[in-house]
């Protein structure tokens, strides 16, 4: 197959691609390295299953950024023409990393869905061993999917219809990958919409029954606004980073690509790298627990020690059920913790969170 027909960028476009790739790639590597170092250094974070999934996301984004920048710049800027097997191996590395990234987002969404849907059973359902098994299975599936073209599911081996944007890639394989990714993204969207709805409906129900007197409607409204803002942020990032890519890939399968669309796709491919850049900000660096763990690594900068928020496990009802004198306080803590779960599990801890709760 002639690789030159896929090298469609002019010199100015090549320069732009190189600058974008190196800039975003550098930030992505530094961010995800920081996340991994902080989690590995913190015993409290290492013991929490939710941070296993965040670590998996950081590893996937770190590997994806390095492999993507090297392969993409090498192909589009330096016009390296590898053998089919070498090219498919490089493409498989990119595919495995970004598939694992979406898979890690999927596991994170499941984790947070369970923390809201089954708060009292969270510790029993989501354990460290189950978390390790989950992300190991996810990574195995991502790698298997990525190496399928190298193992023979490619248009050269099958003498089938080739993709116009990916050399050697069979259109049926591309459609299969689009389907898998779309299903994962749709569940992620559903999970976070459910989290927002559950927190809001529970707050309203408690207020209507008069079980919580100290949480006024304006305070509850401010909580809902913060949750809504985070949901919008997550949805916007998913739509912006994956929507254009999946749309062009579908067009490639069912339509005819021209040079302009191929050029647009080359620049839209940067959105995968952008997604890996913003993931640690949304899912890790905005977490108060992780920021506290980061500050604890530098004793001179450490202020008053604060315990880590155990916000993923809402066991307030269990802790107060046997204390009749604290029924009112137990109900109040339950509603506060329920909203707090939704806020922290979506990594929206901010400096004003404590005041809102």
From TrEMBL:
Any one cellular component term from GO for this entry? plasma membrane
PROSITE patterns in the cross-refs: G_PROTEIN_RECEP_F1_1 (PS00237), G_PROTEIN_RECEP_F1_2 (PS50262)
- Report membrane topology: Multi-pass membrane protein
Bilayer-crossing regions: 15-39, 51-73, 85-110, 131-153, 173-197, 231-251, 263-285
What is the annotated localization of this protein?
Cell membrane; Mitochondrion outer membrane; Presynapse
Tell me which domain of life the UniProt entry assigns to the organism this sequence originates from: Eukaryota
SUPFAM superfamilies registered for this protein in UniProt: Family A G protein-coupled receptor-like
Q: Which UniProt keywords apply?
A: Cell membrane, Cell projection, G-protein coupled receptor, Glycoprotein, Lipoprotein, Membrane, Mitochondrion, Mitochondrion outer membrane, Palmitate, Receptor, Synapse, Transducer, Transmembrane, Transmembrane helix
Principal location:
membrane
- Similarity comment text for this entry: Belongs to the G-protein coupled receptor 1 family.
- Protein name in UniProt: CNR1: Cannabinoid receptor 1
């Amino acid at each position: 197959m002639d690789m030159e027909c896929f090298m469609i960028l002019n010199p100015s476009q090549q320069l732009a691609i190189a600058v974008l790739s190196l800039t975003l790639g550098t930030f992505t590597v530094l961010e995800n390295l920081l996340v991994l170092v902080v989690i590995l250094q913190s015993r409290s974070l290492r013991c929490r299953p939710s941070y296993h999934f965040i670590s998996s996301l950081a590893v996937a984004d770190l590997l994806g950024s390095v492999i993507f920048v090297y392969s993409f710049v090498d192909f589009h800027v330096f016009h390296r023409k590898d053998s089919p097997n070498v090219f498919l191996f490089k493409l498989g590395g990119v595919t495995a990393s970004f598939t694992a990234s979406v898979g890690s987002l999927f596991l994170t969404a499941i984790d947070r869905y369970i923390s809201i849907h089954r708060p009292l059973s969270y510790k029993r359902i989501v354990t460290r061993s189950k978390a390790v098994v989950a992300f190991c299975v996810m990574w195995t599936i991502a790698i298997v999917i990525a190496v399928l073209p190298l193992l023979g599911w490619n248009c050269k081996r099958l003498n089938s219809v080739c993709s116009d944007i990916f050399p050697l890639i069979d259109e049926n394989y591309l459609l299969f990958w689009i389907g898998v990714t779309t299903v994962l993204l749709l569940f992620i969207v559903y999970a976070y919409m459910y989290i927002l709805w559950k927190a809001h409906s529970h707050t309203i129900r408690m207020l209507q029954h008069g079980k919580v007197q100290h949480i006024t409607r304006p305070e509850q409204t401010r909580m809902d606004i913060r949750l809504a803002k985070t949901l919008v942020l997550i949805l916007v990032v998913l739509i912006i980073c994956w929507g254009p890519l999946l749309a062009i890939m579908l067009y490639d399968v069912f339509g005819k690509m021209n040079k302009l669309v191929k050029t647009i796709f080359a620049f839209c491919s940067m959105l995968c790298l952008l997604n890996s850049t913003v993931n640690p900000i949304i899912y890790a660096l905005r977490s108060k627990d992780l920021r506290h763990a980061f500050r604890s690594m530098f004793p001179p900068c450490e202020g008053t020690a604060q315990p880590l928020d155990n916000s993923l496990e809402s066991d307030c009802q269990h802790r107060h059920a046997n204390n009749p004198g604290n029924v009112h306080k137990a109900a109040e803590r339950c509603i506060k913790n329920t909203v707090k779960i939704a806020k922290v599990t979506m990594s929206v801890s901010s400096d004003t969170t404590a005041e809102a709760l």
